[in-house]
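Appendix B.2, paired examples.
Example (i):
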Amino acid sequence: MTRYVALFGSINVGGNRLKMVDLRDALEREEFEDVETVVASGNVLFTHEERPSEGLAEKLAYVVQDRFGIETFAVVRSRDELQAALDESPFAGEGEDNLVHVHFLEGQPDAEAFDKLIADHAGKGAERIAPGTRALHVDYVDGTGNSKLTGGFIARRLGCRGTARNVRSIARIIEKMD
């Protein structure tokens, strides 16, 4: 059995309200064990027999759609993968913890897609951007509220969806996984 984290996209934002206790109950009925949530923004820790993260992500999204009628997706990572993403960030420890984010991606875009994102964003904001392993690292220097570097902007250029967490939240999730 392996311990994972599911990072849901579009949960408790944009009208997709879901109580974490209800999500935990639904997942426990579907063979997910030791289900625990971390803050109310769609971070779910669970134990499951080892399998490819893509298969787990599909299963999680299906459960949420089937039980709650919410169209979502999940990015699934092991504790080591989560730590590797944090270690890979060139901005962690440099920028403010609440402004430095990792966008966890469903897949690995090619270098040309990352280049397109960086070129299309040039001149649109002060954010610092760096590609990663199934991740995009961003320092939202001036905050996320008015940034043009949105999830939709990123997904259109990279060709895959992602969900972002700041480094403070990632560290808290890793701590809970230990």
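Example (ii):
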Amino acid sequence: MRMHPIFAALRHHRLATTLIVLQIALACAVMCNACSLIAARWHATQLVTGIDEASLGTLYLDGFEPGRANDLNARVLEGLRAIPGVTAANVINTVPFSHGSGTVGVTLDPEHQREGGVVDVYLGTPGTLQTLGIRIVEGHAPTPDDYRPAGEFFPAQANVLVTRSAANHMWPGESPLGKAIYIDKTIFRVIGVMEHLAIARSPETPGGEDWSIFAPALPGPTLAGTYVIRAKPGDIDAVMHKAREAIATLAPDAVLIRDKSATLQELRTARFANDKAMIGILLGIIVALLLVTALGIVGLASFWVARRRKQIGIRRAIGATRRDILHYFQIENFFIVSLGIGAGVVLAYAASLTLMLYHEVPLLPPWYVALGAGTLWLLGQLAVLGPALRAAAVPPVVATRAA
């Protein structure tokens, strides 16, 4: 098919063509970046914590005197373990999706020259790893002799476990077993590798959501008030309800922080509530843009069909088939949409660079541009199909008699 008639028609309707091209460009730019943001948010919600979330809950107490921490721990643990359905209860400093009380920067040499990144240090009493359901993939779990008083923040020296992700970051291509990690004057020696243990806070470094260390510790003034409870998955909600009620009797000298005292599944839901809400908003924006764009294409194509009835009739009279007329409008639409996509790609990357500069969002991957372009091309063909079929169905005699 010759393109000259198409170009001539578009030049004759420059304003309408320009408006629909700009509409498509805006839809392309917004949709590409929105899809990228949706994928990033969805990926965040799929975080693998490495623990048995369905069986776990946590209690967080505050307001107690540090000097009575050992007595508080003893009373609370005894009471929690007596609750029907509880299979284990331990003292821990934090859990995933909770408060990040052990976030520190580590180095890999005593002179603190080799940076190891920002990690979360989990402190747990004997049995905590088993309670959490942590899987060890290299080395071994702490022995009873590895559990030492926590000191001011961490044990002064400790044999620890690191996640595989953290180990690969600190010592790429090497076994971490026997390696040392330094936090000021604290020395950690690696004895094992955990498959996963997600950090409690939101990561500061992309890919750092699994940079964790588990240090065995004994309860004391700096390791008190936060407890992890294990029960059967179907019992954990009822067990946590009973545990929250029991705290008033077990620890009248402490305050239960209720928004941090919940099942791990509830904490996960709370952590990612904003992400899921944003996904819903972005999906709504995409659907609205596509709908408006489709209506714009249908309206423009219908207008042009009505204005070109005589032209269509003449073409039919001199031998053009219905398929020729249909293909004419499809090719015309493809050309218009392609112009919009070309402008939209420029706008999409301009918006992506702005987001990257001011909000540390990764640059838009090219496959989202391909996805946006393919969607708009398909949408354009579907939207123009109705008006094009109506144009192809106009009898030559009726068309040539039209005013």
